[in-house]
């Protein structure tokens, strides 16, 4: 059966282990069609964020899909400039309105703000309240280090269900994944097939162009992207590959009918270069990104 399998989060709800990422501000007009195509192909998880400036278009795609709300899994994220008791609640209401939904499945803090961690804590406490009120089904974080998680958990009640972090064969985050396993937090990979490298000057470290991955792709009769996504899934990692291309949307979902043997997994494990393409979570601030969230 080539169907997307589910992971169970630490509060008992299930989440598809593969979903569609939709970060592409330059092409936001293509978002609704991509969401609709993905859902028609069997995707149920859509990963957006207030800062992607396309929640309205995601909502349009969800509505056009004709799939019942209860069968969809929508993740969105609160942006750093909206951290704080009243601001985070307002940001949640604004996201709901743009998406045209009356609850969110998974609501994440988009980045830690280590230079003002009090605001990060205040925002997370709003997420805890939304969870208690049944307005979100699960809460979590994104781009948190193990130390950020420890700091957060020391000051709040609910263990995040998910930490969505940059993760691909060139940046494997082995220690952080081990910490997640210990804490019962699901690791979700952003740029799972190395999209960050293709946006950067360091194209030489793009895992999709790696000769080892190319060899495995040939061996299994799959594409490089499929080999990488399968590696994540066999590691118990959730993935949200982004594509607005109908053929690649189908390709990326088509990874549940083959298995990588242990030696192939080990060959990919050996490709870690420890290279991050995104900002350093130790120093993130909203100002560094210069994104104006719509109301
Ligand atoms: N939490 C965070 O801070 C954070 C940060 C970044 C991203 N994210 C989330 O993670 C998602 C994925 O990350 P990402 O967009 O950075 O990178 P990605 O999913 O690793 O790669 C996406 C790029 O690869 C191309 N692509 C897609 N499928 C392909 C395939 N089968 N073969 C070759 N190329 C393919 C896409 O172009 P086409 O569209 O033309 O196919 C796009 O340029 C985002 O959309 C977003 O939802 C979260």
What is the fold-level CATH name, i.e. the topology of the domain at 6-193 and 235-244? TIM Barrel
CATH class category of the domain at 6-193 and 235-244: Alpha Beta
Distance between the termini: 42 Å
What is the topology, as strand order, of the major beta sheet?
A: 3-4-5-6-7-8-9-10
**Helix residue percentage:** 40-55%
In the CATH classification, which architecture of the domain at 6-193 and 235-244 applies? Alpha-Beta Barrel
Structural class: alpha/beta
Overall pLDDT metric = 96
Low-confidence stretches: none
CATH-assigned homologous superfamily of the domain at 6-193 and 235-244 = NADP-dependent oxidoreductase domain
SSE topology sketch:
Elements lengths: L5 E3 L5 E3 L2 E3 L9 H11 L3 E3 L7 H11 L7 E6 L6 H15 L4 E6 L7 H16 L3 E7 L3 H10 L6 E5 L7 H10 L2 E5 L4 H5 L11 H10 L3 H11 L3 E2 L6 H8 L8 H8 L16 H4 L6
Parallel strand pairs: 3-4, 4-5, 5-6, 6-7, 7-8, 8-9, 9-10
Antiparallel strand pairs: 1-2
Bound molecules: NADP nicotinamide-adenine-dinucleotide phosphate.
The site of NADP nicotinamide-adenine-dinucleotide phosphate (NAP) has 28 residues, from helix 7 and helix 10.
